[in-house]
Design a protein that fits this description.
The protein folds into two domains: about 1-10 and about 20-45 and about 150-184, Periplasmic binding protein-like II (D-Maltodextrin-Binding Protein, domain 2), CATH 3.40.190.10; about 50-140, 3-Layer(aba) Sandwich (D-Maltodextrin-Binding Protein, domain 2). It is built from four helices and eight strands, in the order E-E-E-H-E-E-H-E-H-E-E-H. The chain has helices at about 55-60, 110-120, 130-135, 165-180; strands spanning about 30, 40-45, 50-55, 75-80, 105-110, 125-130, 140, 150-160. The strands form two sheets. Strands 5-4-6-3-7 form a five-stranded mixed sheet. The chain has a three-stranded antiparallel sheet with strand order 1-8-2, with helices on one face. The longest helix has 16 residues, at about 165-180. The two termini are about 25 Å apart.
Length: about 180
């Protein structure tokens, strides 16, 4: 906004998939390759998920030594009342779990930022994307030998907006910020 004050932004934060071809939005960041053939896509970054807990939580409940120990911990997962950003978002419910025995999470949140805040507040262990960790100071990586599935993030927009200067300015800005943050 500082570089191009004449551009007005409207940010819609929603894990649902807006229909860009119907102009529900001009651009989107998608956590999977777009299926619509009329969309231009640019790979932004690979999101890696790891397990984290606050040091306060670990002092109170202990540190899991192996994936099977997650059975005895308070887990925070993505809620099932909304479409998750990626199919494998709740991988910690299955990591090291005994066959036929389901883990019950202590909390379900339909937003990754909410999961991160719950983990930071000491409520439990959660899967948090690598790009969110730098913002938090009191998180400890748990079970560093295991990782969640990687998720590819894409910047997408309708083919008809390819010549748009405002789209190319925003795309270039976004790509530069991803590179500066060393998320690629």
């Amino acid at each position: 906004m500082e570089l191009y004050p004449e551009i007005t932004l409207s940010l819609v934060v929603d894990d649902g998939e807006l229909d860009l071809s119907m102009r529900e939005a001009d651009v989107a960041i998608r956590m999977s390759p777009p299926r619509q053939p009329d969309l231009v896509q640019r790979h932004l970054l690979t999101v890696r998920n790891h397990l984290f807990a606050s040091s306060e939580y670990l002092k109170k409940y202990g540190i899991p030594a192996q994936a099977e120990d997650l059975d005895d911990h308070r887990l925070i997962v993505y809620g099932d009342d909304a479409k998750p950003p990626a199919a494998s978002v709740n991988w910690l419910l299955e990591a090291g779990a005994k066959p036929g025995e389901d883990r019950r999470p202590i909390l379900k949140v339909n937003n990754v930022t909410g999961i991160c805040r719950a983990v930071v507040s000491g409520l439990g262990i959660g899967s948090i994307p690598n790009f969110m960790i730098e913002e938090t100071v009191d998180l400890v990586r748990v079970l560093p030998e295991i990782s969640g599935p990687t998720i590819e993030a894409y910047f997408v927009y309708p083919e008809e907006l390819r010549p748009s200067k405002r789209i190319s300015v925003f795309r270039d800005f976004l790509i530069r910020k991803v590179q500066e943050a060393r998320l690629v």
